[in-house]
Amino acid sequence: MYFHLADLARKQRYKLIAGAVVPRPIALVTSLNADGSCNAAPFSAFNYMSEDPPLLALGLQVHPDESDRAGEPKDTAANIARSGEFVVNIVDEPMLPDMVDCAIAFPPGESEVERLGLATEPSLHVAPPRLAASPFAFECRRKVTLDFGPFRSIVIGEIVGVHVRDGLVDPATLNVDLDRFRPVGRLAGTWYAFQGDRTSRPVRTAAAFAQDGPLRTRRS
Ligand SMILES: Cc1cc2nc3c(=O)[nH]c(=O)nc-3n(C[C@H](O)[C@H](O)[C@H](O)COP(=O)(O)O)c2cc1C
Hints:
Shape: globular
CATH class: Mainly Beta
Bound molecules: flavin mononucleotide
Oligomer: single chain
């Protein structure tokens, strides 16, 4: 089976691409509305891009065709365009219900943080606060916004600093404790994944490969 993307409608492309690139991390982005209230919305077209410089990317779509705000930028996009500042709050298992409620199409400028009663903590270097419940919160400044036609922009943010919940990262090694960090990944549509079985496979040297052969032929 092969799909030529030019032959597919926008929604079909979304289903195919976003259904295949899974599980995706979820950025619950906090940003300031024009009146200073705090907006929160989830984005799974999201990933870390670089550590030097420290960059992450967010894919922001305009409101969908079926919405009564069809074609308008989302509040997050408007807020980042206005202020250049935002916080990416990583979503873990206990945050899943509130994350989903943050995607409700509240009227423009209405604060999900206030409607849902989410606790926040002040950021150190940007104006939008972070969500107190989040295991990792990245304070970000917009580096560049790439606009691709009327529907999609990609924001590249520079990560200024990271807040980490106590007990998640070893301060000496900076290793993340995967027994304590329980991230949520987005699968297709309304489906989400939790951390399941884990496996560690260190990359070997070419010399070790020459001696021992492909990993798939090894027992463990
Ligand atoms: C798990 C999840 C992931 C989402 N990812 C994206 C995304 O990557 N890009 C996007 O434009 N909208 C995404 N959405 C939809 C927005 O969160 C939704 O349109 C939200 O109401 C936007 O809020 P805002 O107008 O306050 O920015 C996602 C929704 C959910 C539930």
